[in-house]
């Protein structure tokens, strides 16, 4: 939307000249219209009163009164009029002083005299009616000036440090025999403890906490699986490939990063291929770089790897219908996507943007489909504040979501942690009304193996800062 034009009450929009009070000269000069008060000889008029003295104490009396016989009364009147003349002589001297800062008629006083400071009045300012005059690129750039703010940078760096310390603990402790529920709970408890925010009071979860539900995917499960209440307990096994994807946010700025673990060296080349592809994408990214070029570089690197599993060789394939993305405040998906295969997309990366480059490699078809179950929910960022829903439970649930998560993605486990129960009917109502979006697990063909690595980085003016980088990946 463009900037609205000035209020219609401004007469200048209709062609009238501004009044003296509306636009005074900056440092001197004659107000517009003052020449109308002059006589034809260029001197200021007196409105039919006493003429200006010539400075020798004698004024011209021809027009001072009617000529006639001198009487005592006329002498007294003349004396009084002379007194008035004397008073007007002083006033005339002041008028001469004022003339020094005013224009003559015809105008002959140089502007350097009227404006000794060299600063001249600004013309009338009107906003453009054509809003396209402010380009979309300019608007987007102004909205990303936050990268110059130290508070913004510290928010992201704090989230990154929480992520590094938490994932280091996961890499050291996650072992076959553990349930995915215990691993997810350990990650989320660590994040909240490091942030010193349990997130149990309304509004606390918007200050800091989990950026989205912890994703723990095994083998052919590619993305968006988290253990939720009511699901069968899943236990980690020796031959499993485990992908760990979780986010940390501080004041809505989400640090998104993921890694993959395997307990059998058979899958080492699969992990190496995806890690190399992610690092290549990060290296290729930059200001004014076309997204299609980043995608092409990722695809080339990933497809150069092969992995042998139980005597059969597989080429590592990028997942064609998943992508990386930019991140906005409280929005994990900001609108731009970075596929893992070459496209014709000529969209460019821009200064100040935050991106999460994640790559998924698989030994399957390289194309994901929906799995059963629900991963989580997210309030649509353009959803109205007041929603006309038929169920009272849906209204209460909508209020709870706004107060605790905003537009951050959450899961059933997070709702029950807040003490919310009997929410499924209300949630389904919000999903059907388009107020809340539902996310499901994503999988490749059964029997395949997949891996993921991901980094979040900021495109700054002279360099990019890979915020999530650690000594592990």
From TrEMBL:
Q: Where is the composition biased (Acidic residues)?
A: 51-66
In Swiss-Prot or TrEMBL terms, this protein is called Methionine aminopeptidase 2
Q: Where is this region: Disordered?
A: 1-111
Q: Which domain of life is it from?
A: Eukaryota
Enzyme class name = hydrolase
The record's SUPFAM superfamilies line, in alphabetical order, gives: Creatinase/aminopeptidase (SSF55920), Winged helix' DNA-binding domain (SSF46785)
Catalyses: Release of N-terminal amino acids, preferentially methionine, from peptides and arylamides
Q: Name one GO cellular component term.
A: cytoplasm
Chief location: cytoplasm
Q: Which protein family is it in?
A: Belongs to the peptidase M24A family. Methionine aminopeptidase eukaryotic type 2 subfamily.
Record keywords, A-Z: Aminopeptidase, Cytoplasm, Hydrolase, Metal-binding, Protease
> Which GO molecular function terms does the record list?
initiator methionyl aminopeptidase activity; metal ion binding; metalloaminopeptidase activity
């Amino acid at each position: 939307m463009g900037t609205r034009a000035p209020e219609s009450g401004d007469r200048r929009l209709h062609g009238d000249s501004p009044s003296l009070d509306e636009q005074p000269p900056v440092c001197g000069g004659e107000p517009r219209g003052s020449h109308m008060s002059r006589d034809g000889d260029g001197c200021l008029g007196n409105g039919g009163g006493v003429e200006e003295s010539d400075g020798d104490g004698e004024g011209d009396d021809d027009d001072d009164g009617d000529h006639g016989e001198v009487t005592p009364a006329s002498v007294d009147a003349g004396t009084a009029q002379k007194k008035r003349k004397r008073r007007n002589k002083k006033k005339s001297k002041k008028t001469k002083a004022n003339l020094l800062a005013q224009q003559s008629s015809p105008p002959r006083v140089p502007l350097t005299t009227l404006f000794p400071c060299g600063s001249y009045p600004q013309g009338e300012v009107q906003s453009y009616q054509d809003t396209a005059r402010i380009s979309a690129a300019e608007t987007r750039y102004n909205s990303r000036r936050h990268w110059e703010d130290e508070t913004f940078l510290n928010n992201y760096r704090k989230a990154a440090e929480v992520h590094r310390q938490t994932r280091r603990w996961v890499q050291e402790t996650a072992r076959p025999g553990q349930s995915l529920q215990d691993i997810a709970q350990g990650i989320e408890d660590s994040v909240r403890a490091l942030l010193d925010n349990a997130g149990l009071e309304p509004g606390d979860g918007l200050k800091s906490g989990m950026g989205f539900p912890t994703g723990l995917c095994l083998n052919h499960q590619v993305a968006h699986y988290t253990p939720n209440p009511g699901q069968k307990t899943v236990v980690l096994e020796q031959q499993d490939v485990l992908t760990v994807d979780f986010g940390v946010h501080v004041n809505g700025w989400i640090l998104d990063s993921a890694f993959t673990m395997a307990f059998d060296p058979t899958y080492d080349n699969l992990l190496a291929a995806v890690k190399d592809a992610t690092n290549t994408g990060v290296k290729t990214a930059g200001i004014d770089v076309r997204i299609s070029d980043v995608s092409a570089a990722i695809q080339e690197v990933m497809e150069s790897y092969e992995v042998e599993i139980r005597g059969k060789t597989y080429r590592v394939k990028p997942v064609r219908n998943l992508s990386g993305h930019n991140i906005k405040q409280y929005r994990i998906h900001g609108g731009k996507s970075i596929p893992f295969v070459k496209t014709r997309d000529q969209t460019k990366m821009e200064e100040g943007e935050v991106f999460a480059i994640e790559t998924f490699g698989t030994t399957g078809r390289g194309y994901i489909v929906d799995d059963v179950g629900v991963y989580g929910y997210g309030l649509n960022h353009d959803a109205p504040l007041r929603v006309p829903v038929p169920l009272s439970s849906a209204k209460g649930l909508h209020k709870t979501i706004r107060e605790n998560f905003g537009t951050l993605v959450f899961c059933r486990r997070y709702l029950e942690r807040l003490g919310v129960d009997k929410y499924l009917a209300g949630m389904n109502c919000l999903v059907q009304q388009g107020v809340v979006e539902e996310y499901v697990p994503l999988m490749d063909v059964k029997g395949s193996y997949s891996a993921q690595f991901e980094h979040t980085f900021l495109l700054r003016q002279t360099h990019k800062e890979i915020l999530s980088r650690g000594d592990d990946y």
